[in-house]
Amino acid sequence: MKKIIFTENAPAPIGPYNQAVLSGNTLYTSGQIAIDPKTGELVTANIEAETQQVMQNMKAVLEAAGMTFENVVKTSIFIMNMGDFGSINTVYGSYFNEKTAPARETVQVACLPKNVNVEISMIAVL
């Protein structure tokens, strides 16, 4: 059985998908990009601000499922420019305890939705 997770504190889906799906005790999130859920505008002033918005969106989705970043077991990061890796990693890392941080891959891609620079998805477990 699956439960659809939705919160107004994260951007509404821009296609035929949900913010997250809870199946049993495992949460599968859709990728989040840097859309400010209050304004609907992209936050792209710089890569740090963009990554911060992505992580805040992800935090809202996790909270809607009754979870925190401590519940995250796997993360996927998609970036447009591997040169931004250090800045993205610094912001991303500020949300996790390094000793209990999740598994992760970071992949450079050719293009992301709305031409953003970073998209992050997660898997979390209760």
Automatic annotation (TrEMBL):
<dbReference type="InterPro" id="IPR035959">
    <property type="entry name" value="RutC-like_sf"/>
</dbReference>
<dbReference type="Pfam" id="PF01042">
    <property type="entry name" value="Ribonuc_L-PSP"/>
</dbReference>
<dbReference type="GO" id="GO:0019239">
    <property type="term" value="F:deaminase activity"/>
</dbReference>
<dbReference type="InterPro" id="IPR006175">
    <property type="entry name" value="YjgF/YER057c/UK114"/>
</dbReference>
<comment type="similarity">
    <text>Belongs to the RutC family.</text>
</comment>
<dbReference type="InterPro" id="IPR006056">
    <property type="entry name" value="RidA"/>
</dbReference>
<protein>
    <submittedName>
        <fullName>2-iminobutanoate/2-iminopropanoate deaminase</fullName>
    </submittedName>
</protein>
<dbReference type="GO" id="GO:0005829">
    <property type="term" value="C:cytosol"/>
</dbReference>
